[in-house]
Amino acid sequence: MKGKSFQAKLTLLFISLVTVVLLVTVLVSFRRDVRMQKQDLSLRILGMARLASLYLDAETLMQIKPELASENAPVYKEIQNTLIKLKNVTPFVDSIYTMIKSDQPDKWVFLVDSGDKRKVVARCGEKYDVSKYPDMRVAFERPSVDKELTTDKYGVFLSAYAPIYDKNGKAQAIIGIDIRAEAIRAMQLMLLYRFIGILIFGIALSIFFGWIFGRRVTGPVRSLMEGVRELGKGNLEYRVDIRTKDELQELAEAFNKMSDELGQEKQKLQRYYIETVKSLIRALEAKDHYTSGHSERVAHYAMRIAKHMGLPDKDIKLLEEVSVLHDIGKMGMPEEILGKNGPLTTDERKIIEQHPSVGEDILRPIEFLKPGLSAVSDHHERQDGSGYPHGLKGEQISLFAAIAAVADSYDAMTSDRPYRKALTQEEAIQVLEKNKGTQFDARVVEAFVEHLKELKSKT
Description:
Blueprint: H1 2-54, H2 58-61, H3 74-89, E1 95-101, E2 107-113, E3 127-129, H4 134-137, E4 144-145, E5 150-152, E6 155-165, E7 171-180, H5 181-210, H6 218-232, H7 247-286, H8 294-308, H9 313-323, H10 335-338, H11 346-352, H12 355-363, H13 374-377, H14 399-413, H15 425-434, H16 442-458
Antiparallel strand pairs: 1-2, 1-7, 2-3, 4-6, 5-6, 6-7
């Protein structure tokens, strides 16, 4: 009886511990994923605001007088239709609007508003007090997004803003994008239901198998507890290995399955973010047929170089993902500089040379991309130290950045540009070999040239 009593106590203790740990783990994971979801959403609408600002012409927008009568003008209706189309592209966006400054520092004026899903429209010429919204007040200086939800007479929103530049690079107006709080809460509620299901599943398993494992809990439970701790740390790749050929092994398999499901959800969030940014990059590249598809080709070349150099599969995949985003910083560059059909001035070149740093700032909050961000921040650095933006040289330049630099340059050379025709593969190889050790990493060039020659010999 004493043995059975101890077994029952041990089993109940096991069930209680697993339940508590699962509860804490799921709570921590849920809070982390909510935070990640909010960060991803903020980045998405910030990118949308940047992209949407490129669709509007500042000179055309400034033709609208900030008064109610302007709403009947053709140019007002044209811009409003554009904003409505941009809003309808993404279901969770509530409204998109444009504003200009007034003669009062904290009073801005609405020009054109797409209207929200409740058919509420800010009228042309209507003033808005921005003094309580610090993230909005910097919108004429740089793209920004609210750190927290904001409240005004129109409702509760998470908003992003971006300046609309004229041909001289001066911000004449801003564009704002609102997401209603209800939409954000609906997304969080779906995430909550998923985690509650996982919690209930875990508790049910612990109760069901607890009584069966009474005599053989010590060793296997340590393995399970270690798995739970690793899961709580965010290590979704950790797997519990128990081979007892009984229900304990089934519990381990169920735990691993739960880890797989959490990992798949995390991967979906990561993939959703990557695909969203890719779409923004494609939209940016679509404005210039000379650069259309450039980012994806660079990612493809970088992946082939990494494979030929024998990098681990995990590094190859990470390099491919960051390489496709290597020019994301150009989304923060003025359109008139990006689309200039001639040589850049010294000031314009200084601006464009900031795009690697801007790209790194955009992607830094995304944890799973951090190990590969050097491919974004340093892909214009040179081995001799004459590159930009930091003037790194030699071993200061990571292998990821060195590979991205070769892939980027090769695609640029073998693609048509407004100022020259594309080089042949042989001509591009000659340039790479001529500049290895000064501009390019010699190891990367040799691996890429060897790979290209192997491919050619097979055709």
